[in-house]
Design goal:
Elements: E1 2-8, E2 15-19, E3 27-31, E4 42-45, E5 48-51, H1 53-72
Antiparallel strand pairs: 1-2, 1-3, 4-5
Length: 73
Amino acid sequence: MKKAYVVIDEANGYVNEWSDIAGERYIEIKADENLIYNLDCVKVVKGKAILDTKKQDEVEQLNAETIQEDQAN
C-alpha cells in the first residue's frame, strides 16, 4: 500500500482526482499502486482505496462506446 492524496466527488462518492502531493483539498489515503490514478470507480473506505468492479465495468463500457462513436464520425 502506498500513501496517496485524493479528491472525492461529492455527488457519487468516487475518487475523481489523485495526487502524490498533499494539498488543501486532498485527503490522505492508502492505496494499492494498481488503483492509483484510476478514476470514477474507486471509493475510499476507512482510509483505503477500494475498487468498485461493477462501476469499473460500466466506465469501461461507456468509454468503449464513446471511442466507437468517435471513430464512426
